[in-house]
Amino acid sequence: MEWIYGWLLLSPALVLLIAFTHLPAINTLWGSFFSTPRGQRPAKFVGLGNYETLLADETFWQVFSNSFWYAVVTIPVSVALALLMAIWVDGKLAGRGFVRLAYFAPTVLPLIAVANIWMFFYTPGFGLIDQISGAFGFPSVNWLGDPDLALGAVIVVAIWKEAGFFMIFYLAALQSIPPQLREAAAIEGADRWTFFRRITFPLLMPTTLFVSVNAVINSFRLVDHIFVMTDGGPDNASSLLLFYIYEVAFKFWDTAYASTLTVVLLVLLSVLAVGQFFLLDKRVHYR
Question: Rounded distance, CA 88 to CA 50, Å?
């Protein structure tokens, strides 16, 4: 009878998970094989027609490239920066509580507020960055209006926003490491770098796996910053995959093609997540 109670306890979460995750995913996959209904014209089965359109879509490939470079930069930089910040605030530091608060503050700010703050920083002529650089004689730069700089400007905002969030997990993991290990390493003559490389970092691998999976997911779900700061411009230079899905679905009202793009995003995230678990599994569980 205990298994019945177990399933009863799981049923509320299971119902919500199926209703708001699995069923929408299946419906999205099914909808990608149909055309978009228009007025009195119902949706028609088109098979792989939407996927053929996707392969020939130049905008999709540009957005895909943007998403790739955005992920390649933001994931390792935000994770590494979070680890460095956690190590810094875990040690004996004057005003340690204030520094922790300063690092974590960007995380609790609303995404729209963060975007507006950085828009003030990036504004040409009278923005904070131009004011500082202008004092040293540097020319004004249109960070969000230059196709070569817009994506990089968005990447900086994302790293600033996420590093403090990941730092909390690393800080908790560091504080759970027994101090006896450090004492034993000191007795054996191990320096700080050896202790970190041989003991601290291996013990942080479960946290690193968790943080890296979240970093991958976050890198593909950014919409708010782009919506406020660049609207995907200039000329799709800062548009990412999820923002392109939003545009196709709610600006162009092509729900079938948006479903196709969503399927690609879900498959991509699934492959990356599974790959992370297989690559890091042995390091996490020491097998």
Answer: 50
- Name residue 158's amino acid: A
Domain ranges of the chain: 32-285
**What is the rounded distance in angstroms from the CA atom of residue 287 to the CA atom of residue 284?**
8
| Topology of the domain comprising 32-285 | MetI-like fold (1.10.3720)
Q: How far apart are CA 16 and CA 123, in angstroms?
A: 43
pTM, full prediction = 0.86
Measured over the CA atoms of residue 202, residue 206, residue 207 and residue 212, the dihedral's sign is positive
Helix (H, G, I), strand (E, B) or coil at 44: coil
Three-state secondary-structure class, residue 32: coil
Determine the residue type at 226.
Answer: I
Find out whether 66 and 210 touch, Cβ atoms under 8 Å: no
Give dist(CA 189, CA 87) in Å, integer: 21
CA 36 to chain centre: 30
CB atoms inside a 10 Å sphere around CB 137: 6
Q: Hey, what are 101's tokens?
A: 């608060």
Among 5-19, 23-37, 52-66, 180-194, the range scoring the smallest mean pLDDT is 180-194
User: 52: which 2 tokens?
Assistant: 């053929």
Is the link from the previous residue into 234 a cis peptide, with omega within 30 of 0?
A: yes
